[in-house]
Write a structure and sequence with these properties.
Helices cover 53% and strands 5% of the residues. The chain is mainly α. The chain has one domain. It is elongated. The model has no long low-confidence stretch (mean pLDDT 78).
């Protein structure tokens, strides 16, 4: 994604090195590098295994949702 977005500082805010700047943009190269790093981080998290305790909790949640639909407690 190469769409450049601007960020409006709070009224009267002074950004570092830029007094009276109305908008601050992110360079396309920087935005691309940030996007790549975020994708790499996300890919690493997705590949991690889910701890058994979380799987057990998810199973319990599914069972409780199933019993609510059938009217059982």
């Amino acid at each position: 994604m190469t769409t450049s977005k601007s960020v409006d500082p709070a009224p009267g805010a002074v950004t570092e090195g830029h007094e009276n700047t109305e908008t601050a943009g992110v360079d396309a190269a920087i935005q691309g590098a940030l996007g790549r790093k975020l994708r790499e981080s996300y890919d690493q998290v997705v590949k991690e295994t889910v701890p058994d305790k979380f799987l057990q909790l998810l199973d319990q949640l599914k069972q409780s949702e199933g019993s609510e639909k059938t009217g059982k407690s």
